[in-house]
Design brief:
Blueprint: H1 2-9, E1 17-21, E2 25-31, E3 37-44, E4 59-60, E5 75-78, E6 89-97, E7 103-110, E8 116-125, E9 130-139, E10 145-150, E11 153-158, E12 162-168, E13 176-181, E14 185-190, E15 204-209, E16 219-226, E17 231-237, E18 242-249, E19 256-258, E20 263-265, E21 268-274, H2 277-293, E22 304-306, H3 308-311, H4 317-330, E23 334-337, H5 368-378, E24 382-387, E25 391-392, H6 397-401, E26 421-422, H7 428-444, E27 448-453, H8 474-492, E28 498-500, E29 518-519, H9 527-537, E30 547-550, H10 559-566, E31 570-573, H11 582-604, E32 606-611, E33 618-624, E34 630-637, E35 659-665, E36 679-681, H12 682-687, E37 699-707
Parallel strand pairs: 22-23, 22-31, 23-24, 24-27, 27-28, 28-29, 30-31
Antiparallel strand pairs: 1-2, 2-3, 3-4, 5-10, 6-7, 7-8, 8-9, 9-20, 9-21, 10-19, 11-18, 12-13, 12-15, 14-17, 15-16, 16-21, 17-18, 25-26, 32-33, 33-34, 34-37, 35-36, 35-37
Helix pairs in contact: 7-8, 9-10, 10-11
The protein binds alpha-D-galactopyranose.
Alpha-D-galactopyranose is lined by residues 308, 338-339, 351, 386, 454, 456, 501, 503-504, 520, 523.
Length: 708
């Protein structure tokens, strides 16, 4: 410990500040004369080191329980002697180039009374203005310690006002955006749902600083926790008007014992800071995700036809093969077989039974999945399959054989969410089982080209038969167990595309998306609702990751309106051709052709949210290719008013000096927009704009722009 003190005392003047920087953002720490670490600055990039000395002292960088600061701590450790206080002092820091190309700053802090060490790890992604923060808490004691709080990050900001946008909702009504001003005291966003942690709110937020921000103006910090379980964000405004933001695993019922020599690694808190409003913040995260985080972020995505809405549980081989013909007729890449294909003692004829018994139901699929794979191959399309491997219906053989694998309270009546229970992924045997669901299918049918991985229940009946006297580890160890399984799957099947589903958007975060190529945002596929839902998720997740399917929801909306909305994401269909007229099928086929041609712009381009559906009657979004030579614009009249004052839509992200030829695509009947076939400068399009909105309800337009 003496070494720690001397290092601090001998520190050269230029070491007193530790600056983490991206192209446009600085986060600056200061080592105080007392040896403790403070955060002095977070905001637009400061380029002159000589200015650092003028920065305010700041609050402690990783506030600990038991010391003189009275606000919410980031860390709370119970030491073996019963002392709950920790005082962290700076030991050293290193800056290195991380394997992924980011710059990693690792700051080591230690307590000189107890052998507890904390490493703050901050990876800066310069071009995207994204910083990824996590911590490692090391117990070098010979005895265990208990962690009561273990945040991934604490950030502080000293601004005049703070406006928080949160995204609350529920099944089929996900991510409703609402904004409120933070005042003295705490605002907590958290979840205790376990496996389906994000059912009422996903783990991200937007924080506007000094005043409201818009899509193009204002300082805004957008943050998200990469953890597929209970999370907590605490926003606390103190008596001086300073905001402290603590992000991490929810400590609720999660005291974690760290054995001698063990390290606790917290999940990543990912944030970006934009001085040009929310649009730029989202583009930063989209581009970061595609390049560094999303599974196969730079790769292609398949269009598909899913049978869920078309059949629900009511299908047999013949019906499925008929739907494959529909997939071919529409021109999609893949057929996806959904729930209902498994279980024999208790066939999965409804959501009341069969979950956990992953053998094909003989009466429905006498020739098994292999036959379906062959049929798909014969028709020139790929085959994908639905699983929900973490779950079990009490009415199943799995439950009968392995009740000890089920999270349940041994001495209480069971209660169910969607008639099912959650398997205990803290148990390595259960991890083997879950891995085996994928592995056995892939071994038997290597032609399977896609998995939809569902998760339809939060953790209920919270008790792990495996963890015995360590029950407060369950929420954390469940998630770690899940990651172990996903690691094994990725080690063996690195390129297999997988969709993350949780009855819709009940479970989405950037740690899960290391393993999943895409996610299902909502079971609500009404295109009007989807305008809001896709808009909300686009705050943090790129179009490439958001599955959007055309279904029969909201038949009042034309097939064109439905296809246009779904074409803003990863396009799919969940509909039978018999639900469509011939000209509608022809339209879908052409629209899929357009989509395939424009995928590089829609899925990999920069997204500009031009008109928010929340503003009322219309919505518009555009995507622009990296080289600004191509763009796609989507415009929707949702609920226009009679004699409404309609303004042209000003485009964004184009090159002012280039000329763009505009073509209206995805047309079915009627007249094209006046701009169809015309050429305009980028300057005109961004300054004057195009009249894209009209006064007929549920009308939509898609424009393709090509630079001349
Ligand atoms: C969840 C999914 C749906 C569908 C059903 C099947 O609700 O979100 O898309 O797969 O399960 O039971």
């Amino acid at each position: 410990m003496a070494a720690v003190a001397s290092l601090c005392l001998n520190m050269a003047a230029h070491d007193r500040y530790i600056a983490i920087a991206t192209d446009h953002v600085s986060l600056i720490y200061r080592v105080g004369d007392n040896g403790r670490l403070y955060q002095s600055y977070l905001g637009p990039r400061l380029t002159h080191e000589s200015d650092y000395a003028g920065l305010p002292g700041g609050i402690e960088a990783y506030l600990t329980h038991g010391m003189e600061d009275y606000f919410e701590p980031a860390l709370h450790v119970e030491h073996p002697d019963g002392n709950h206080s920790t005082e962290l002092k700076y030991v050293s820091h290193q800056v290195s180039a991380a394997a992924d190309g980011s710059t990693c700053t690792a700051i080591t802090l230690a307590d000189d009374q107890y052998p507890t060490t904390v490493r703050l790890l901050l990876n800066a992604y310069a071009a995207q203005d994204v910083i990824v923060a996590h911590t490692e808490i090391v117990n070098a004691d010979k005895r265990p310690v208990t962690l009561h709080k273990y945040a991934s990050s604490l950030l502080s900001m000293n601004r005049s006002r703070y406006f928080l946008t949160e995204y609350s909702g529920d099944w089929a009504s996900e991510v409703n955006m609402s904004e409120s001003e933070l005042q003295f005291g705490k605002k907590v966003l958290d979840t205790k749902l376990g496996s389906r942690a994000s059912m009422f709110m996903p783990s991200f937020f937007q924080l506007s600083l000094d005043g409201h921000s818009s899509e193009t103006q204002g300082d805004v910090l957008v943050g998200t926790l990469a953890w597929t379980g209970n999370y907590r964000f605490t926003f606390e405004v103190d008596q001086n008007g300073l905001l402290r933001l603590i992000s991490g695993i929810n400590p609720y019922f999660s005291a974690y014992q760290l054995k001698a020599g063990e390290t606790f690694t917290t999940p990543d808190f990912i944030f970006t800071y934009s001085t040009q409003g929310r649009g730029q913040a989202s583009r930063n995260l989209h581009s970061w995700a595609r390049q560094y985080r999303l599974k196969n972020g730079s790769g292609d995505r398949m269009t598909l036809l899913n049978n869920w809405e078309a059949t629900f549980f009511d299908f047999d081989e013949q019906k499925l093969v008929g739907l494959m013909d529909d997939a071919v007729r529409l021109g999609v890449d893949m057929f996806l077989l959904d729930d209902g294909w498994f279980g024999n003692k208790y066939p999965r004829s409804s959501d009341h039974q069969g979950l956990g018994d992953w053998q094909e139901t003989a009466s429905k699929l006498p020739h098994k999945v292999g036959y379906l794979c062959e049929q798909a191959a014969k028709k020139g399309i790929k085959f994908g399959i639905w699983i929900e491997p973490e779950m079990v219906n009490p009415k199943s053989e799995l439950y009968e054989k392995h009740k000890d694998w089920v999270i349940h309270l041994p001495n209480r009546k069971e209660y169910y969410f969607r008639n099912q229970m959650v398997l205990d992924l803290s148990n390595p045997q259960v991890q083997d089982h879950v891995f085996g669901v994928v592995d056995r299918l892939m071994t038997a049918y290597p032609q399977i080209a896609f998995f939809k991985w569902d998760c339809n229940s939060p953790i209920t009946n919270i008790f792990s038969p495996y963890l015995k006297d360590k029950q407060s580890h369950l929420y954390v160890d469940y998630v770690r167990g899940l990651y172990k399984v996903l690691e094994r799957i990725r080690a063996k099947y690195p390129d297999l595309p997988m969709m993350l589903c949780s009855g819709g958007g009940g479970r989405i975060d950037y740690e899960a998306l290391r393993y999943f190529t895409e996610f299902w945002p909502s079971d609500n596929t009404d295109p009007v609702e989807r305008l809001y839902i896709q808009y909300g998720f686009s705050s943090v997740y790129p179009a490439k990751a958001q599955c959007a399917h055309v279904t029969t929801w909201n038949k009042e909306a034309s097939i064109k309106f439905r296809v246009d909305v779904a074409s803003m994401g990863k396009l799919g269909f969940d509909i039978k051709c018999s639900d469509l007229k011939d000209d509608e099928i022809k339209f879908c086929r052409e629209a899929i052709g357009n989509y395939n041609r424009l995928k590089p712009v829609i899925l990999d381009g920069d997204m500009y949210r031009l008109v928010s559906p929340y503003e009322g009657n219309h919505a518009s979004t555009m995507m622009v290719s990296g080289g600004k030579d191509r763009a796609v614009v989507f415009a929707f009249d949702v609920n226009p008013r009679y004699r409404e004052h309609l303004l042209p839509v000003k485009l964004q992200g184009l090159d002012s000096n280039r000329q763009y030829r505009v073509a209206e695509i995805n047309r079915i009947g009627g007249w094209p927009l006046g701009c169809d076939g015309k050429t305009y400068s980028g300057e005109y399009l961004m300054t004057v704009g195009l009249p894209l909105f009209g006064t007929t309800r549920l009308t939509s337009h898609v424009l393709e722009l090509v630079a001349m």
